[in-house]
């Protein structure tokens, strides 16, 4: 990856602060100023500075990753920002609004700059926060792609979205708004898990539920959050052209998108989106912050599962904006009758081998009841791995959980069921999906013999794979003496 290259246009006390801070950072620094004495002084200090008009692109270097416009004249700053944006379409542009800026000036800067800083803001901090190594590349790439959306962006969550997917979609909608792009959080399927419904209801969230087979013709762009392949765990056509994909699950197959951010070293996609908010200096409102923190807490199981330093940093950033009383109400929803019924069938039909439990609950109305049952069954004495599965609409769904074991459950389910369906997830939280057509001739809805066949095949694959199951990265790191949490 190329080193950051920064350009400062104009000179002022603000520019001096930026240059002083930027000189200690990796990468190159260029300054264009009409103040000859300042240019000479900067050159004596080893800075690539030149005398010139900050609004004249002939004075600019060939290529930069970040531009800060920091002159004293607000009107010249506006012109310089416009010229810099035209000259460096992929760069991150931070603009100083000048002393006592007019509303019109700020509005004009907002139209071309990624971040506008008023006289009371710290330009150096805004500039450097977004201009370090890989971060500037990610932020710049995302904003560049968003600016090409000439209509509405569909931010698509995975089917039956969980809090991490919901919060991530809301955050990307907020970022799109920064550059004037209309975006809509969308999902296929239904929201049935009590906590997920509580999140939507208590925070009064507006999400668009797409009909099965819906065309996406009305949207000019498609973004995927908390998953990365169209047609896999969403209702999109597999050949859907994707503009943006942001996910913390490691993909098993090649993923294509104009802007890709796939990082498995964090515990939640909400953490990745929070990082974008921080770098773009977007202050989240209470609703967004509460949703993001809940998403992080759910996916990291209250910071006890696959958690990284980035997850703690994101939570620290969000905490001052969160409605903690609402968060408490979201986290304590009542257990519905469907979940209780599924849990009862899971207990009744369970098969236990060693510390692993598998159970077929038969036909289901609520997919999320499987996950809740898998969680609850971990409380049974001697059980450290659970797999709960059931079927609806000619598809079998499975949810797995693990606690205090070295097994990587996501890889285990991929090995067990990947050849007959799709599977994956985290080391201690994973799932699988199998088209009942694999049993074709044997499939008769509600037939006892069919259910016995499914149970026999699913349990055999699960237990046999466990015998040679891959270890989780966390357990490997522990054996090698590495401290946890770790960055992958």
Note poorly predicted spans. Answer: 473-488
Main sheet: strands, sense, barrel: 6 strands, parallel
Protein structure class: alpha/beta
Helical content (DSSP H or I, runs of 4+) = 25-40%
* Strands in their spatial order, largest beta sheet: 3-2-1-4-5-6
Mean pLDDT: 84
Q: Count of DSSP helices?
A: 17
- Quaternary state of this entry equals single chain
Question: What overall form do the CA principal axes indicate?
Answer: elongated
Instruction: Supply Rg.
Output: 26 Å
Account of the 3D structure:
The structure is a single chain. With 488 residues, the chain is of the alpha/beta class. Helices cover 39% and strands 19% of the residues. The strands form three sheets. A six-stranded parallel beta sheet has the order 3-2-1-4-5-6, with helices on both faces. A six-stranded parallel beta sheet has the order 9-8-7-10-11-12. A hairpin with a 2-residue loop joins strand 15 (385-392) and strand 16 (395-402). Helix 7 runs parallel beside helix 9, helix 8 runs antiparallel to helix 12 and helix 9 (269-279) packs antiparallel against helix 10. The protein is elongated, with a radius of gyration of 26 Å.
